[in-house]
Structure to design on (229 residues):
């Protein structure tokens, strides 16, 4: 299940680019918390604390207990904006929830084990769904949903309806969707090596010229006799 951690936040009154630059220079990160019943509230959290929180998170869904002015609010880290260069945290969105409120989240799917069709038959495990859209109470929110694929042979599949969900968790997507399957190995045809034979060109038969007989001028004409004076 998603681990619930404590995080201190302060209300933020200064709004605008200049205020945000000043806030970041002081070692804090701007944030906002919103919920279905409350108006959005501008907050700020320590950069060091939020970096520690994100680095130790087991999954994408992080449940936090926000301490704001001595009061605790349960919230889900909804979105974290990072700088394109360096990856520094620029802004955080918190979604306020209550312990008895059903929440919706995307939870990663993770295959466990090596499929028999892959291990012994040379097949390929294909993961069609990388995450699963679920509904549950905050206390039941899982970090990840693991699926045992070791029994799959070539041609076998695991559909959403066959995934064993944790207690208190239900899915919001079609149950007949394929989550994992094992494909047959791809047989590559060996290229046919063509023996390049040098084809002989057509034989050109040239007519042999007859050599002129002795005393015969070229072209076959007999030489003219000298006239006697």
């Amino acid at each position: 299940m998603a681990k619930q951690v404590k995080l201190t936040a302060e209300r933020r009154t200064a709004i605008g680019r200049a205020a945000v630059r000043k806030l970041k220079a002081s070692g804090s990160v701007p944030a906002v918390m919103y919920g279905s019943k409350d108006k959005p509230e501008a907050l700020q959290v320590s950069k060091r604390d939020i970096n520690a929180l994100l680095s130790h998170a087991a999954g994408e869904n992080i449940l936090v207990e926000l301490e704001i002015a001595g009061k605790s609010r349960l919230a889900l880290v909804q979105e974290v904006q990072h700088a394109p260069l360096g990856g520094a945290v620029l802004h955080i969105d918190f979604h306020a929830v209550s312990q008895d409120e059903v929440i919706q989240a995307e939870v990663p799917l993770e295959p466990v084990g090596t499929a028999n069709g892959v291990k012994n038959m040379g097949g390929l495990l294909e993961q069609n769904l990388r995450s699963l859209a679920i509904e549950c109470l905050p206390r039941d929110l899982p970090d990840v949903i693991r699926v045992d694929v070791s029994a799959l042979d070539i041609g076998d599949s695991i559909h959403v309806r066959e995934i064993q969900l944790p207690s208190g968790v239900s899915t919001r997507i079609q149950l007949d969707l394929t989550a994992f399957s094992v494909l047959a190995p791809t047989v590559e045809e060996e290229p046919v090596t063509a023996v390049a034979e040098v084809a002989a060109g057509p034989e050109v038969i040239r007519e042999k010229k007859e050599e002129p007989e002795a005393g015969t001028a070229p072209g076959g004409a007999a030489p003219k006799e000298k006239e006697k004076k």
